[in-house]
Write a structure and sequence with these properties.
mainly alpha
Length: 102
């Protein structure tokens, strides 16, 4: 049997919680992504954008044959968060009929 990462979902979802807190603070200070509505209407989108990478990274860390150190979980979370955010912005821009590049 192989050694697994201890509590991978807790570590990855802690990253999600950290990003959520910062994003909600930025949302109420007026800083947000172009596609997210201001105020309370944007909270579900921010929550989803932060939780999806945490769940995926937790799954990858749990299914890996080698244990993942904390720095690898954080790095994978950041990379996946950037990818999910760019994909979200591209899809919203495409749906609105705008181009992603100027």
């Amino acid at each position: 049997m192989f050694d697994q990462t201890q509590m991978p979902y807790v570590k990855a979802l802690a990253c999600s919680l950290f990003v959520c807190v910062i994003a909600v603070g930025a949302l109420f200070m007026g800083y947000t992504l172009p596609s997210i509505q201001a105020g309370k209407a944007g909270l579900p989108e921010l929550l989803a954008l932060a939780l999806v990478p945490g769940l995926v990274v937790g799954l990858f860390a749990k299914r890996s044959e080698k244990p993942w150190p904390l720095w690898l979980i954080i790095a994978a979370f950041i990379i996946l968060l950037i990818g999910v955010t760019l994909a979200h912005e591209a899809v919203v821009s495409w749906k609105a009929g705008n181009t992603l590049l100027p």
